[in-house]
Amino acid sequence: MTWSNQDWWPDLLRLDVLDDNAQDVGPYDEDFDYAEAFEELDYEQVKEDIEDVMTSSQDWWPADYGHYGPLFIRMAWHSAGTYRTADGRAGGAGGLQRLPPESSWPDNVNLDKARRLLQPVKQKYGRKLSWGDLILLAGNVALESMGFETFGFAGGREDEYKSNEAIEWGPEDEWETTSPERFEGDEEVGALKNPLANTVMGLIYVNPEGPYGEPDVEGSAQNIREEFSRMGMNDRETVALIAGGHTFGKVHGKDDPDEHVGPEPEAAPIEEQGLGWDQDFEDIGGMITSGIEGPWTSNPIQWDTGYVDNLLEHDWTSVKGPGGAWQWEPVGDDAGTAPGAQDPDEEEKLMMLTTDVALKHDDDFRAVLEEFQEDPQAFQEAFAKAWFKLLHRDMGRPERYVGPEVPDETFAWQDPIPDADYEIIGEEEAAELKAEILATDLTVPQLVKTAWASASTYRDSDKRGGANGARVRLEPQRSWEVNEPEELQTVLETLEGIQEEFNASRNDDVRVSIADLIVLGGNAAVEQAAAEAGYDVAVPFEPGRTDATQEMTDEESFDVLEPEVDAFRNYLGDGDFDDDLYGTPEERMVDKAELLNLTVDELTVLVGGMRTLGATYGDSDRGVFTEEPGTLTNDFFVNLLDMDYEWEPVDEDEQVFEIRDRETGDVEWEATRFDLIFGSNARLRAYADVYGAADGEEKLVEDFVDAWHKVMTLDRFDLE
What pTM did the predictor assign? Predict the structure, then answer.
């Protein structure tokens, strides 16, 4: 074994997650446009090819009921269902299910077979059809092939070719375990710590047997609500997804998985060629996946209300199934049976999971079940929309959707913004507006912080947030503490006045949005600050942003974007970091930089530049290592690296420090961990050396402008 630096020093700040942002690790050229390639597909033929696979069983893997549809639904669900709102990571985009750890999760047993069955389809269409799209589209086609009317489908998910090491899956070091550190309390029921959504390591959602592997329906209902809410689903959507998904197929547990199932794909021998979980069907009398055995309905390959009817109309009792796991069987003999999965002449008893029975015993969940039983059309529509949301939640705004089945209807969870119904400003108007902004009483720090507050909400993980839409002026963003609401209001009122006057003065159709003005103001401030330092720079500006309305904004879904800390504005929040798994403030800084798609040098120059611009929370002097705040210099790095100073923590948590003159002992500045990490971490210090050198200031200004422009345009999908 070759030990890495992380092995030798486990507490070393990990920066390698930012290196993936520095280069494309995929096999295609930089000019390859996947969205355009997808549009070239014969889409209907693709769907026909997928459906052909579904009913043409191959000898090496049996199809339940002669149909792979339920297997493909599970594959799609387990791909998209990893998404969590806390950081927007995971989900179906990227086709991450085919890469570790998801490829070998205990909850994904035998999904390697589902993907392998689709291999001929992928080979046929090559670069025009990503695994991310194929996996989810197969789920849609499966539903349609069994009588369900889906709401639509959008392509456009580019594949990843490397595991996403930025995803925090949990604190445990063993699969299918749960430690107290996963929850805010000490129980396996309750509030999960951010950014997690699943309650058990290696499971997509919750333990199907119940918390601690026991048939506890009350605790299971709590976990279901906690987990699905962290996917952005309400109670109605939660019940629709579970009931709709469990209308199809069965679970597999003819015997104990520990005794009969081979190692997962990543641990399997090389001759298995990426397949895992080897098992002898004849020896065990059937397939093993979860260790739970049986179907939910009497017709597992047909859309109907069988699941809802069976759950509500029968009493269920907990038993140990043939695989040794807790499951539920109907009381009495009137619940009916299903045909055998491999031999239709055989019969199988129906079953339910603890997570199913939990829905029946929770008042709010049960009310939804009863609504669906009374109104099957409402059930169909609710599942169609919830399934569409599940598959598309991580794709961002609707303009990123491609394909002939993109629905016309949009939803608040898609963060829509309006199209411009006017001519956007050009270079001449932009220059005029910048001059007007700089002529106001607004300061460089105010303009920089407002533009940053607007643009830095972007998350590359799920393409949410960003400056387009100017939601920084709407709730909840306008009230976030980090955005300094009173100062933000002052800036917005001034910019709105400029907008009103400009738009009223035009005799043509040219108009400017607040979204563009916010970015333009930040750009103007950066240019002025660079000029004060003696550098003539122009920050690129691409107009065309429009303004969203409060009605277009799902406040609850935007709450999760609120920063608890912000290294770029030197904001430490309340300093309590026990409610999540990020660890130190500097780890949060790197996590945010990864979400902003920044490289290590971009992170470094943005922090150092914003300090000298004075763009700190509350106009604090912390980290502003310069006598000329508001001027874009390299003073932050020069003074950070100056050995005439020494550093001393001023609080027990070592989050705030004083920088003292070594000779006199006088306090020169205050700093946070966000500042000092650029001197203490060897790799960050290597970048600080470059920017802090005598010839480093011009490079800092140039690099800052590039990185600033990148952040301001992260959500401009129309420019791609």
Answer: 0.96
